[in-house]
Amino acid sequence: MRAVGDRPPVVQLVYSSVENLSDTNRSLLFAGATSLLFWSSFDTLLPTLPQYIADVGGSNQQVGIVMGSLTFGLLLFKPSMGALSDQRGRKLVLGIATSVVAIAPLAYRFVDSIPLLILIRAFHGIAIAAFGTSYAALVADLSPVEKRGQLISSLSMARPIALFIGPALGGFLMSEFGYTTLFFSAGALGLLGLLCVAQIREQRKVSQPKTSAFAFSEFWQLLISPRFRVPFLVFLLGNLVFSSSSIFVGLFIRETQVNLNVGWFFATAAIANLAMRLIFGRVLDLYGRGLFISCGLVLSGLSLAVLSYAQSTLAFLFAALLEGAAAATWPPMLNTLVADRCSSEERGRAYSAALSGLDLGVVLAGYVMGSVAESLGYRGVYSLCAGIAFLTLIFFITLINKDLSSSLRFAIGRQPDFYALETAKKLKIPKN
To answer: What is the pTM of this model?
Structure first.
């Protein structure tokens, strides 16, 4: 066996740097690496899986149905994964997520039946259900309140990086080597993520296991509570329009006969996403969550409006820039807002309730927008989604706080969040 000192200099430098980190920073580092590998695996299939479904004989509507079937696994397992994260630990649930994301891509390659693809896609959804709640809760657990927005935004940068790597890599592997190499590569990335999970050390005490009936009951109680029902609605509608863009943009570009690899659309969005996070990362905790969420929703609506009229490479790339900027603002800050509104003991369940809106957004994007695409075409899809994005902004700025006046002021960064635990403690507001 090679001794530590016999490692190559670069490997030795990396090894020493990691070993010298505190347990918290080391866990955050491996959590970020896990996120990057997890989403890279998932995103290699983002533009390519719809084309695979079409190539095995699926119609536009069937493409939407298969892609939307991801949410069956999400909806069925989200409450239990949130409760399991609180009761048995974030690390266990992250392990489940990375295991599923390593297995599911391999199954796609050996199936050319639409019903079986629906089942595999639903199984793939378990990975998102497990990862979304456990990763968000883990990062929030390790982040001090005064830097929570910055750290959550920074640690969620893995997603836009994966959006840069994954679709471009997936498009390249599919065109140069075929579907077999594509699906096996996606599985290998998931396996590497599982190895990173093994290096994470949790620093919170977990509660005693409770029954699954309790988990589902509390899930619905949290979902309809004043703290989480509006974040749930914004996540739902916001991800509906984002998922519609992601699912159909490759087919839309092909239909318009624009000479643009769909991977470059996602890469452009990812670059804009990263740039926005790097520019505004240090001020995310200074001006309030509401201001950045409002700006992000405006950018999302503008992106979809541009897509609905796009007829050139420049127009598609400009829409991608706006989409990336939107994704850098409202999702991480809404994520932070949820963390502000719950304690560590309930954080997994709170995220499972609020983030289930993301899952329903995928369902509506696949099923509803697939039907819209059949009847109105892709431009009709993006016109409708632009309207939904601006409607979501109206819901947010009028309903997010205790009343209309405080909601409007919070949405422009002029008032603190009424439901945040720190605010509630100062005002002695009972948690509900």
So the answer is: 0.75
